[in-house]
Specification:
The complex is a heterodimer of chains A (431) and B (252). Chain A is an alpha/beta fold and 431 residues long. Chain A has one domain. Chain A has nine helices and 22 strands. In chain A, the strands form two sheets. Chain A has a ten-stranded mixed β-sheet, covered by helices on one side. An eight-stranded parallel barrel of chain A has the order 8-10-13-16-19-17-14-11. In chain A, a hairpin with a 2-residue loop joins β1 and β2. In chain A, α7 crosses α8. The longest helix of chain A is centred in the C-terminal third of the chain and has 16 residues. Chain A starts with 6 loop residues before the first helix and ends with a helix. The N terminus of chain A is likely disordered. Chain B is an alpha/beta fold and 252 residues long. In chain B, 35% of the residues lie in helices and 28% in strands. In chain B, the strands form three sheets. In chain B, strands 6-9-10-3-11-12 form a six-stranded mixed β-sheet, with helices on both faces. Chain B has a four-stranded antiparallel β-sheet with strand order 2-1-4-5, covered by helices on one side. Chain B has a two-stranded antiparallel sheet with strand order 7-8. The two termini of chain B are 27 Å apart. About 5% of the residues of chain B have low confidence. Classes of the chains: A alpha/beta (431), B alpha/beta (252).
């Protein structure tokens, strides 16, 4: 029904496979300085010469844990880093998948369903018909093809009509097995006039050398409903991440997406598409930090398809030796839509920060704007703070901390501490 | 408090201060006059140690310590504080947090201070974000009230401020200089004032601020040199009547 088959969209989602084109070329040339590759590049990550076949599909099963509070301490350490709370009373529900095994799934409120996707597809005939592969196409590219047409991993979250979940629901997709390719298909259905906040964490075990995460997500936000989706990612230096996300927001619905990635990642390429109907709203925030060896190509496309639709894309990117391509594209297709795109980047240490804000208006009566700035910290700001008694290092971290301080509602309380830690680590690299 | 000897300063390759000698004793407030581009702000920036102001000769002594090449934050911690004319915006840092930073380790009642300076409506706003001229001055004074420096460097405290608000500014400057207390109970001056008496160096174009603060002395900075040192009001009168050139002629 909404599948993205237009050439333009495919191109946007599929950037990583178009060799030697536009901005990616510059980014790859930059990254290649570090990685001297003689062989013919493979398709998944040309810089690091990696393809899907470098990863393994099968992993051992893990034990199911009935009670959230009794999850082993080693695992808990990994999960809390990405926003997971092990106190089940603080969450509306929890879904944890380790490699290919669901190790925990529970809920604490009525009106919400949360379960493994395979299980859900078996239980609800309508799920396959109405929601599976409706926003994404299995034939889109190598990545979508790699996920089975009938998925067996990932989560299904369904909040019933009019239910307003007071507490957030949490999901965690964790890779523990070396070289494992974790492929999941997630579906979220938020029925009319309901409200839900999902904290979606993704992580890898500390000892993990390499892994691949492919996550396909299709979200349906019905009339007057609100979905807040907060993603906190903590990957690893040789972990490759290829999410594909499409979101459909019906009349008057609201989609708020927060994406936070502060730790190193081999490469991540993601360009979710959000489709807004009449009077629907999308607010998409991202906070990205790229240290040495990190390659991030992150974007967001919002189609404003109905009168009164509103969208805001805000990103803050910090490069400290790595590469960030920060994209954003607002498409105004009906009169009376409004959108703003703000893309700000700081380069603390040599690397590449490529901001690509795009606006396309298809009809008169669209109102869209963008603001992009890439630079270093203003010396005047540093000295101003020093004149108030902070030393240079403290002044810089105060400014960087402020730079990342995008107002994001409902973040886990200790996230600020972790942002501070990441900033400190980035500075260590700088010195 | 502050002694400047034979100070020569360059910005890039341009000599901006030629030979500045200045002495601000403890407890005194000096007013710095001078036409645009005469180097007044540069002198303040040099005293504070900002980059870009290269000292090529002479020295700056504060509280007996040579601070000529000291990093900015050490000067601040030693007790130098600046009221900036055009301070930068710091995105994502609330003024409240900034005031706490200014207080260093000391405890500070942000509510009370900001109320006093009529800044309580803006206290959660990012530092200097979308503030009017007067609001910027109040924000600066709020920060300085928490910082409690012994030497205040005030760069045009009244610029962009409406006449009514100047009184408020004058009051809080006097408070910062402990002059408010002095006025309230003159006979107990010695017991109430604690520590070092505070000093100030104030840049002004209009002289309006002189109606609200007590100036001990005025100086005219002209073409990179201090040319005149006498009663501040007298200097202001001369400048008004005869202009800067004539004014400095008298001491030449």
């Amino acid at each position: 029904m909404y599948s993205l088959k237009g050439e333009e969209e495919t191109c946007l989602i599929n950037q990583e496979f178009q060799s030697g084109q536009n901005c990616n070329e510059a980014a790859y040339v930059h990254a290649k300085k570090a990685d001297n590759i003689n062989n013919r590049p493979k398709t998944l990550d040309k810089v690091k010469n990696i393809s899907l076949s470098d990863f393994i599909d099968a992993a051992e099963n893990h034990d199911y844990v009935e009670i959230l509070e009794t999850i082993g301490q080693d695992d808990v350490k990994e999960f809390v880093k990405v926003g997971i709370d092990t106190d089940s009373t603080l969450r509306a529900g929890t879904f944890i998948q380790k490699d290919s095994t669901i190790v925990h799934c529970s809920k604490s409120i009525e009106g919400v369903e949360i379960k493994g996707i395979a299980n859900a597809l078996e239980q609800h005939d309508w799920l396959g018909e109405k929601y599976l592969w409706r926003l994404l196409s299995p034939e889109q590219d190598e990545i979508t093809r790699s996920v089975n047409i009938k998925p067996d991993q990932g989560f299904f979250i369904w909040i019933k009509k009019g239910v307003k979940a007071q507490k957030p629901l949490q999901t965690c997709l964790h890779i523990a097995k070396e070289k494992f390719s974790q492929k999941v298909h997630n579906i979220v259905v938020v029925e009319e006039d309901s409200e839900l906040h999902i904290i979606a964490g993704c992580s890898t075990s500390e000892h993990l050398e390499s892994g691949l995460h492919i996550g396909l997500s299709e979200f349906y936000i019905k009339k007057g409903a609100t979905l807040k989706y907060t993603m906190i990612h903590d990957w690893g230096e040789n972990v490759y991440v290829r999410p594909k996300t499409a979101v459909h927001v019906d009349e008057g619905g609201v989609f708020i997406s927060n994406y936070i990635s502060l730790r190193p990642v081999g490469s991540i390429v993601s360009n979710p598409v959000t489709m807004l109907e009449k009077n629907a709203t999308a607010r998409i925030n991202s906070i990205l930090v790229a240290g040495k060896g990190t390659y991030m190509d992150m974007g967001s496309v919002v189609e404003l398809n109905g009168t009164g639709a509103r969208a805001e894309i805000i990103s803050r990117a910090i490069v400290a030796g790595g590469t960030i391509i920060s994209r954003g594209h607002l498409m105004g297709k009906e009169p009376g839509v409004k959108g703003h795109l703000e893309c700000k980047g700081l380069i603390l240490k040599e690397g590449l920060l490529h901001a690509i804000p795009e606006l396309s208006g298809h009809t008169p009566g669209v109102e869209m704007s963008h603001e992009a700035a890439v630079g270093k910290i203003d010396k005047r700001e540093i000295e101003y703070l020093m004149a108030r008694g902070l030393d240079e290092e403290e002044a810089i971290s105060t400014i960087v901390r402020g730079f990342l301080n995008v107002e994001i509602e409902g973040l886990p309380a200790d996230l600020e501490t972790r942002i501070d830690e990441a900033v400190k680590e980035t500075e260590k690299d700088m010195m | 408090m502050l002694i400047i000897e034979e100070l020569k300063v360059e910005i890039g390759d341009r000599e901006i201060l030629q030979n500045v000698n200045l002495h601000v004793p403890p407890g005194e407030t000096h007013i710095l006059f001078g036409p645009n581009g005469s180097g007044k702000t540069s002198l303040m920036m040099t005293i504070m140690g900002f980059s870009g102001y290269k000292v090529t000769r002479g020295k700056i002594i504060f509280k007996g310590e040579d601070i000529t090449y000291m990093p900015i934050h050490e000067r601040a911690r030693l007790g130098v504080g600046v009221l900036f004319q055009r301070p930068p915006t710091i995105n994502g840092l609330s003024t409240r947090r900034m005031v706490e930073i200014c207080a260093g380790g000391k405890s500070v009642n942000v509510e009370a201070l900001s109320k006093k300076l009529k800044f309580d409506d803006f206290i959660e706003r990012d530092v200097n974000h979308n503030l009017s001229g007067g609001e910027i001055k109040r924000s600066e004074l709020l920060q300085l009230s928490a910082q409690q420096p012994d030497l205040l460097l005030l760069d045009e405290p009244e610029s962009g401020v409406d006449l009514e608000s100047i009184a408020l500014l004058g009051d809080s400057i006097n408070n910062l200089l402990d002059r408010g207390i002095q006025k309230a109970s003159p006979c107990h001056k010695n017991t109430i004032m604690s520590g070092t008496p505070k000093s100030a160096l104030v840049i002004t174009h209009t002289g309006h601020i002189l109606d609200y603060i007590t100036a001990d002395r005025g100086q005219v900075l002209y073409k990179g040199q201090l040319r005149c040192s006498r009663n501040a009001r007298e200097i202001l009168k001369w400048i008004r009547e005869y202009g800067y050139e004539e004014c400095v002629e008298c001491t030449a």
